[in-house]
Amino acid sequence: MSQPLTNATEFTVSEIAQAVKRTVEDEFGHVRVRGEISGFRGQHSSGHAYFTLKDQAASIDAVVWKGNYARLSFKPEEGLEVIATGRLTTFPRSSKYQIVIDNIEPAGAGALMALLEERRKKLLEEGLFARERKKALPYLPRVIGVITSPTGAVIRDILHRLEDRFPSHVLVWPVRVQGETCAPDVVNAIEGFNAFAAGGAIPRPDLLIVARGGGSIEDLWGFNEEAVVRAVAASDIPVISAVGHETDTTLVDYAADMRAPTPTAAAEAAVPVRSELIAYVEDQGLRQRQAARRSLASLRDRLRAASAGLPRPSDLAATQRQSLDLAASMLTGALRHFVQGRRVDYSGLAAALQPRLVRQRYAELKERLDNLGRNGASGLVKNVDRARLKFDPCSRQLPIAAATSIERKHTALGRLAPRLRPQPLHAELRHARNQLAPIASRLAGAGVQMTTSRRQQLEQLGKLLDTLSYRNVLARGYAIVQDNQGQVVTRAASLAPGDALHIVLAEGEVDAAVGGAPLRRKAARPPSDGGSQESLF
Question: What CATH architecture applies to the domain 115-130+141-271?
Answer without folding.
Answer: 3-Layer(aba) Sandwich (3.40)
